[in-house]
Inverse folding.
């Protein structure tokens, strides 16, 4: 798959899961050093928000917006994933006054499992996955331009 970064084409490595498939199970560590496993979240809808770098403006906008919107939907489990380090994520959350489930994928296990790793920049593609309570993907968006925000309204519409 190809996406663009400020107009330049970059390759996304691997195969991305499709709508209708059960989301591939993964486990990553959160900021409290606890393992979060996707299969443990069955029974409730899940939104997985993937950002390339929490320290960039569009990633910050995406993370803050979803954090605000998901606070209104307590029945939905919300995860933000980036390949930033735990320390970078903690520093960002502290600076922004945001408390949320942030998962770090520094080893790119999730990124490769979901086909979102971009080797040229060693970052993850910007993506959103919405899963139903059984873990099936009911919405997927991989933004064609990395510096473009995802369609927040579409995600919220699907959750309602």
């Amino acid at each position: 798959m190809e996406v663009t970064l400020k107009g330049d084409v970059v390759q996304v490595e691997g195969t991305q899961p499709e709508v209708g498939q059960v989301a591939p199970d993964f486990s990553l560590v959160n900021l409290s050093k606890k393992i979060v496993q996707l299969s443990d979240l069955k029974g409730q809808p899940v939104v997985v928000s993937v950002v390339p770098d929490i320290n960039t403006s569009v990633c910050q906008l995406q993370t803050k917006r979803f954090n605000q919107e998901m606070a209104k939907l307590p029945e939905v489990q919300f995860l933000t994933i980036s390949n930033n380090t735990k320390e970078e994520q903690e520093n960002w959350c502290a600076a922004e006054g945001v408390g949320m489930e942030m998962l770090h994928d520094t080893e790119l296990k999730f990124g490769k499992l979901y086909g979102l790793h971009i080797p040229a920049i060693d970052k993850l593609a910007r993506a959103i996955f919405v899963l139903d309570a059984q873990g099936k993907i009911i919405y997927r968006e991989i933004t064609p331009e990395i510096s473009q925000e995802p369609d927040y309204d579409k995600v919220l519409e699907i959750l309602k």
